[in-house]
Design goal:
Length: 278
């Protein structure tokens, strides 16, 4: 069965829009793009469209590649101070001359809609209420939407980035799963992925996960987005693996739209936190 991220994301987007309208929330996101990375430009454009759909105002910053780290940090500091700005998103990756960790951690954690500051990541480790980054949040929401049991399940996540693999592992732990994280130095990866009741692929290698790496009946979540000659594909060999998986998310129309919808939820949550709305 297909885990339909597009449909689920549309439902979340609609309920977010209804909430914003009903409660008359006035929300503004500062969306900062540095340079001209074509993929980043597409992501930023999609985020702007999604915000417009639900009535979130976007204050866009398109900064040239040569922007200094100090200039960027000053813009973030201004956004931190500005009561009209409820969320701040700096599109990654940043140009090579910038220290991403330093830039991210300049963001006020209450406005950190991507959940990437050490404060918000630390809260996630501590099991405290926080903003979890959008892709991991989207993965859990998608699985729950399809009533997939997480408690006691063997979850194998391949990929350990701070954006996807690590926070996702913590969210699965919060949901009582037994979690294994694999990465590029993992030995005998196939033996581990074969044990997974739920396999999450997040490495950025087209069709890396072949049918012999997946247990019959497993749930497979494909986070990867890879550009190949014929278009976009995930990290999983969808054609073959979908024959043996019980559930599988496609690429596109899987985790991608869930990420955007979850970002909208994160922006609303930041706003509510700032306004002390329970
Ligand atoms: N759908 C969405 O909305 C969404 C959102 C974010 C990212 N993505 C996609 O998800 C993928 C991963 O993104 P990311 O930001 O997490 O990437 P990343 O920062 O490049 O991390 C990739 C991870 O995969 C591991 N890895 C690479 N090759 C491997 C291999 N052959 N075997 C096992 N592990 C391997 C790396 O291990 P090491 O740590 O050992 O290097 C690293 O932990 C990309 O395709 C990206 O485009 C999609």
């Amino acid at each position: 069965m297909i885990l339909d991220g597009k449909k689920t994301a549309e439902e979340i987007t609609l309920s977010t829009k209804e909430l914003i309208e009903k409660e008359n929330y006035k929300i503004t996101l500062a969306l900062i793009l540095v340079g001209n990375n074509p993929a980043s430009e597409i992501y930023v454009r999609n985020k702007k469209i999604a915000c417009a759909k639900v009535g979130i105002e976007v204050k866009g910053y398109n900064l040239p590649e040569v922007t200094s780290e100090e200039e960027l940090i000053n813009i973030i500091k201004d956004c931190n101070k500005d009561d009209e700005v409820n969320g701040i998103l700096v599109q990654m990756p940043l140009p090579k001359h910038m220290d991403e960790t330093k830039v991210i951690n300049t963001i006020d954690p209450k406005k950190d809609v991507d959940g990437l500051t050490v404060i918000n990541q630390g809260k996630l480790i501590g099991g405290l209420p926080t903003i979890a980054s959008a892709t991991p949040r989207g993965v859990i929401t998608l699985l729950k939407k399809y009533d997939i049991e997480l408690t006691g399940k063997n979850v194998v996540i391949v990929g350990r980035s701070i954006l996807v693999g690590k926070p996702l592992a913590l969210l699965f732990l919060q949901n009582n799963s037994t979690v294994t994280i694999c990465h590029s130095k993992t030995k005998n990866i196939k033996e581990i992925t074969k044990q997974a009741d739920i396999l999450v692929a997040a490495i950025g290698k087209p069709k890396f996960f072949t049918v012999d790496m997946v247990k019959e009946g497993a749930v497979v979540v494909d986070v990867g987005i890879n550009r190949i000659e014929s278009g976009i594909c995930g990290d999983v060999d969808f054609e073959e693996v979908s024959k043996i998986a019980s559930f599988i998310s496609p690429v596109p129309k899987g985790v991608g739209p869930m990420t955007i919808a979850s970002l909208l939820e994160n922006i609303v949550e930041c706003y509510k936190m700032q306004k002390n709305i329970l």
